[in-house]
Design a protein that fits this description.
By secondary structure, the chain is α/β, with parallel strands linked by helices. The protein contains 15 helices and 16 strands. It has an 8-stranded parallel sheet with strand order 7-6-5-4-3-2-1-8. A hairpin with a 5-residue loop joins strand 10 and strand 11. The radius of gyration is 22 Å and the shape is globular. The two termini are 19 Å apart. The N terminus is likely disordered.
């Protein structure tokens, strides 16, 4: 119940300052530098959903310009990642990988220089197999050589896919990841003021059908034990936990559930000082198949789960409404919180407890604050209730007035009030409510 509203008024400034401070801490950089270890998911743009493999030098330069002009870069979106389609099908005589002579005539070093000149970071794609999904040259048996090429080009982010011809070429499929990390470590030794190369891989997830069905039978160990060992050995920064996303609400919810089930992967990576993050795939925000309500839920889920925020909607036609969703400062601050802790599923009660359409996640933030997300996966509105004691925020015997939290709506950027013991709110169908929780004590 909401109590002491008048007393909450003079506490609002304190709550606001906490979340603004969090936002400032989160927005200074998403870069993984050589001499520091921020635990923050990458933010940027990925070309696949908008352009597939139809990418070229002019398009990438335009995207770099548009990331700046739209305000995405200022909001924290730093990486410009080329997905499949940039490489030739065959390698050079010495085995080195070659960018397409037709679509990238100036070469990747020049393209990387242009991207860096805009204050952005440069990402590329490869596959651990001899060929990529589009039949371009993959990295199999060339990992160290490709790592050196990427280093020479000034690449800051590499996505290693698991598709294309020659599937399961390695006896142990993580060997590609380990070799790339070895190459990237060698590259890091040559960089003084440049960033370490982020390593993104597919796949690593829990052994449940909705998450692991894509690679069952392909030699992957579909277990937290097997995945965690691989990720630690290669010091992977982020890993896909599900097959490719699609622009549907059910696919978004499924991705969030797989990230939740795989939460221990991100919390157990003790050997990677930079941290690591479950990746439910790129954002579908801006796609017309999703309603505005569903898109806001999508953004809220990825932020509470500390998932990478990779935009993939065409920037030359992006709407103001889409930009508002992607650049909401207090929402992004949840994702980019310096603690880098993924939100965990917590108990809540909805109208229809049997259907389990009411979901809740709680994420610890700096300054002893929390973010709380309530989601309604049903198509009709329902009331969702959470008890502070059930969330582990206070003792169940604290008594009336002994367990109070100031609640702030992070989308609306305004206070809700001071809430004692439990909180109930009506959530729209396929909607969500994302709030910040703080105490004055």
């Amino acid at each position: 119940s909401i109590r002491h509203i008048s007393r909450a008024l003079y506490r609002v400034c304190g709550l606001l300052s906490v979340f603004l401070a969090t936002a400032v801490l989160s927005m200074d950089s998403t870069v993984l530098t050589l001499d520091s270890a921020p635990r923050r998911p990458p933010m940027g743009f990925n070309t696949w959903n908008s352009y597939g493999g139809n990418i070229n030098e002019k398009l990438i330069k335009n995207l770099a310009d548009q990331m700046v002009s739209t305000g995405l870069h200022e909001a924290g979106y730093t990486y410009l990642n080329l997905d499949d389609g940039w490489a030739e099908k065959e390698r050079a005589a010495d085995g080195s990988i070659i960018p397409s002579r037709l679509t990238f005539p100036s070469g990747m070093k020049a393209l990387g220089d242009y991207i860096h000149s805009k204050g952005l970071l440069f990402g590329v794609y490869t596959s651990e197999n001899p060929q990529t999904c589009m039949g371009r040259a993959g990295s199999y048996a060339h990992e160290l050589q490709d790592a050196q090429s990427y280093c020479d080009w000034g690449v800051d982010y590499v996505k290693v896919d698991h598709c294309g011809s020659g599937l399961d070429s390695w006896p142990t499929m993580n060997k590609s990841w380990v070799l790339f990390r070895q190459g990237f470590d060698k590259c890091a030794a040559t960089r003084t003021e440049r960033q370490r190369i982020v390593l993104s891989v597919e796949y690593c997830t829990v052994d449940v059908p909705q998450c692991a069905s894509w690679f069952i039978g392909r030699g992957k160990p579909n277990s937290l034990v097997g995945c965690s060992a691989w990720l630690q050995e290669a010091r992977v920064d982020l890993w896909r936990v599900k097959s490719d996303i699609s622009p549907s609400f059910s696919a978004i919810v499924a991705g969030a559930e797989c990230a939740s089930l795989s939460r221990n992967l991100s919390t157990n990576l003790t050997t990677n000082p930079y941290g690591g993050f479950n990746d439910p795939d790129i954002l579908e925000i801006g796609h017309p198949s999703l309603s505005p309500t569903e898109q806001r839920t999508h953004m809220s889920l990825w932020c509470i789960l500390a998932a990478p925020l990779l935009v993939s909607t065409p920037l030359d036609s992006i709407s103001n409404a889409t930009l508002a969703l992607l650049t909401a400062p207090e929402v992004i601050a949840v994702n980019q919180d310096p603690l880098g802790i993924q939100g965990m599923s917590v108990p809540c009660v909805g109208n229809d407890t049997g259907a389990e359409t009411a979901k809740a996640w709680l994420k610890p933030l700096v300054n002893k604050t929390h973010a709380l997300l309530l989601m309604n996966s049903d198509s009709s509105p329902q009331s969702i209730t959470v008890q502070w004691s059930s969330l582990g925020l206070c003792s169940s015997d604290a008594g009336v007035g002994g367990c109070e939290y100031d609640v702030r709506d992070l989308w609306m950027r305004q206070p809700v009030g001071t809430v004692d013991e439990s909180w109930s709110v009506v959530v729209d169908g396929h909607g969500s409510v994302l709030v910040g929780l703080s105490t004055s004590t």
